[in-house]
Amino acid sequence: MTANMMQKLILGSSSIYRQNLLKRLGIPFSTLSPDIDESRLDGEHAESYIERITKAKAAALVTQLEDDCILITSDQCATFAEDIIGKPHSADKAIAQLKRFSGQTVTFLTGLYLLNTRTQQERYILSRYKVTFRELSDAEIQRYVAIEAPLDCAGSFKCEGLGVALFAKMEGNDPTSLEGLPLIETSKSLRQLGLDPLA
Question: Where do the catalytic residues lie (predicted)?
């Protein structure tokens, strides 16, 4: 193991989805949970919102970091018809979201920010991924929400589970971005900041 591999990796997220994704890279990491106001500003575009929140999570954690670590933060939203689609938090709202998406395409924006506290290098990437839903019946939507309860997922589905049955097609460079953490870009950024998952 190289000296760079000894640098600590911190995931600034309490999301079990992001934690499970990062585990795939095989690098030990610890987690911190940022406490920030994630309200959208008046007139704020989705891309600007995601970048601001992703970086704000990191800024909220900087004082808790050691001098020799790499911090990862991320945020995601779904966009449809110029609206930002959040987490439904209730079955009724999940059903309403999926009814709205039936036969339509939803774009997911995932922000990724990395900071190397040793070198002060930083990287920000915005990953886009599109999901086109097939025409869904009310019964299918209700059954899906009852089975998988995607109440804490933007867009009201879990693509890593039964949610794929809702789709007509998926388009993008990195399907893991849809789950909340784009691992291709994460791996690339880690290499550029001196922490190679394959070293």
Answer: 75 (proton acceptor)
Residues 170/178, Cβ–Cβ less than 8 Å: yes
DSSP assignment of 46-64: HHHHHHHHHHHHHHHHGGG
CA-CA distance, 52 to 55, in Å (whole number)?
A: 5
Q: What are phi and psi of 94, to 5 degrees?
A: -65, -45
Query: What are the catalytic residues?
Result: 75
Domains identified in the chain, total number: 1
* Rg (alpha carbons) of the chain, rounded to whole number: 18
Taken in order 150, 178, 114, 36, the sign of the CA dihedral is negative
CA–CA gap between residue 97 and residue 141 (Å, rounded) = 10
Over residues 75-134, the pLDDT tens digits come to: 999 999 888 988 899 999 999 999 999 999 999 999 999 999 999 999 999 999 999 999
Contact 69, 117 (CB under 8 A): yes
CA dihedral 144, 146, 149, 154 (to 10 degrees): 50
Tell me if 58 is assigned to some domain: yes
Does any domain span residue 199?
no
Burial (CB count <10 Å: 0-12, 13-18, 19+), residue 79:
buried
Which is it for strands 8-11 and 30-31: parallel, antiparallel or unpaired?
parallel
